[in-house]
Amino acid sequence: MPLASTTHRAIGDFEDIALTMSDGENTVRVDVQRNLLVTVGRLRQNSPAQQLAILEVHRDHIEQVASAKYDKGDYHRYANGRVVRITLGDWERYRPEEKVAGDTRTGLVGSIA
User: Fold this and answer.
1) Model pTM greater than 0.85?
2) Quick one: CA dihedral 99, 82, 46, 50, positive or negative?
3) For a tag on the chain, would you pick the N or C end, based on fewer CB atoms within 10 A?
């Protein structure tokens, strides 16, 4: 089941910025590496506020990547929930480009195998 977006605000911690998505009635945390946001945002000055702003600009794509990884079972299970981690490698595998033949569902290029 694809993950659905929520309206919850992203929360920052030391290494990642977390947002939540839902899988039906279950909440799934999505951890986005800060270095991904710095790279994607081409930030010269690296502040938490700038990273949160970059996350919001790219939130739709980040959520698509998280949903694709989740559908493939690429997440961590913990006693109290599930976590999908988005890295720079994931961003590069799932570039936000035009749809390609064979992947009309997400419009994402690449796959995680």
Assistant:
1) no
2) positive
3) C
